[in-house]
Amino acid sequence: MQVLNTIGRRKSAVARVYLHEGKGNITINGKDLKVYFPSDLMQYVVTQPLTVLNLTGNFDINVNLDGGGVKGQAEALRLGIARALVLHNPEYKPALKAEGFMTRDPREVERKKPGQPKARKRFQFSKR
Fold first, then answer.
1. Would 26 be classed as within a structural domain?
2. 56 falls in which pLDDT band (50, 70, 90)?
């Protein structure tokens, strides 16, 4: 099997995923999954597509992660893994789509406007 290359994005995080058959190792920026994401919740989010399809020990996954925070990176990686699995076998798509792993979350941070302290918050109005 050749290496499958996909991309996942969330907020400002970008995950470039390289999937190939192996023993279930997930390497992120040269580090193991448990070292890069010490939180059990983030490890769970990353491995969700594999656990839904019962493929936990079948693939080795190499990832280049860039930008964003911890949660954004984990969700970008989840999308990238789901897309790679569908490239490997298109029959996986209905199960992953039903769980919501095939949809890119479009929500982004709204920009700060001039004359305001934040995107929507205004400075206190003084009538006099």
1. yes
2. confident
Instruction: Give the structural domain span for 52.
Output: 4-99
Average pLDDT value over all residues in the chain:
94
Please tell me the pTM assigned to this model: 0.90
Residue 52 falls inside a structural domain = yes
CATH of the domain at 50: 3.30.230.10
Residue 121 forms part of a structural domain: no
Give the DSSP per-residue string, the chain. Answer: -PPEEEEEEETTEEEEEEEEESSS-EEETTEEHHHH--SHHHHHHHHHHHHHTT-TTTEEEEEEEESS-HHHHHHHHHHHHHHHHHHH-GGGHHHHHHHT-SS-----PPPPPTTSSSSS--PPP---
